[in-house]
Amino acid sequence: MKTINFSTYSSIRIGPEVGVKVIDDIGDFSEFYIIGGANNLLVSPNPPKLAILGKRYDFIKEIDGYLHIGGATKSGKILSFAKHSNIANFELMQKLPGTLGGMIKMNAGLKEWETWNHLVAIKTKDGWIEKSRIKHSYRHTDLKEIVFEAKFELQKGFDPKLLEIFKKFRDNQPQFPSAGSCFKNPPNNFAGKLLDMAGLKGKRVGNMGFSKSHANFLINLGGGTFNEAIKLIDEARKRVDEEFGVKLELEIEVLGHQT
Length: 259
Ligand SMILES: Cc1cc2nc3c(=O)[nH]c(=O)nc-3n(C[C@H](O)[C@H](O)[C@H](O)COP(=O)(O)OP(=O)(O)OC[C@H]3O[C@@H](n4cnc5c(N)ncnc54)[C@H](O)[C@@H]3O)c2cc1C
Fold this sequence. Notes:
Elements: E1 2-5, H1 6-9, E2 17-23, E3 33-35, E4 41-43, E5 50-53, E6 60-63, E7 66-70, H2 75-84, H3 100-106, E8 109-110, E9 113-114, E10 119-124, E11 127-130, E12 136-137, E13 140-141, E14 149-153, H4 160-171, H5 191-197, E15 204-205, E16 208-210, E17 218-220, H6 226-244, E18 253-255
Parallel strand pairs: 2-5, 3-5, 4-18
Antiparallel strand pairs: 1-2, 6-7, 7-14, 8-9, 10-11, 10-14, 12-13, 15-16, 16-17
């Protein structure tokens, strides 16, 4: 076990201090909710039983023409490895905070560049599973198991130009603590645009608010609480539904609270 204080560990800086099981071996941990870097999580004061992968799953290895990466490996480490080894397809990890397990579960990415694009297979407690056997789409996968390791295509040619493009996309992201985009973009629409049109841009409840520069970022302005975040989420969904008939789906995951 290790103690994690989510008000410092999570990117949105909200949550209690709790004991988290550290997983050091492949096995069945279905009674636990697996966390990575908590960059996509809003943790309530009463979270479920949590687990996290241990150091053993923090690795990058070239094996038989593939790149094998441990589920606990951070995006920054993967990006620098790709850069120094001149490996293509990992440029999207530029300022995309998370661990490989979290990125695979969320199919994290930017526009058409997604974590699953060059994924080959994942290793769960049931062994290696080919990517084609798991449904995945924009910010969604049907993955129910813990990812201990993943295998990617190994192609040469790290692209610094692509890195510049991703840097530019990130330039207008709010600097306040957040969990990235709060809602998924509805089909053929943008959550940020709908929030803006519904008057939510810059809207505050206590010390939480939708960013003035990027309406779909729920930001912590300092000492923001779980309840303030939930109030804003509920109000945003209600107003966007009332005004535009669109039911916004959360991209961030709320732990220990029904949304
Ligand atoms: C400033 C900022 C910018 C961001 N920009 C983007 C962006 O451009 N695009 C984007 O897609 N996301 C973005 N995000 C969200 C976040 O970076 C991604 O969702 C990332 O994949 C989260 O990884 P994590 O390790 O922190 O996962 P967590 O937040 O800890 O968990 C997320 C999900 O992954 C699951 N999970 C974690 N580890 C494993 C594992 N080993 N096996 C199976 N499931 C696991 C969890 O159960 C949970 O369902 C941003 C976040 C921030 C704070």
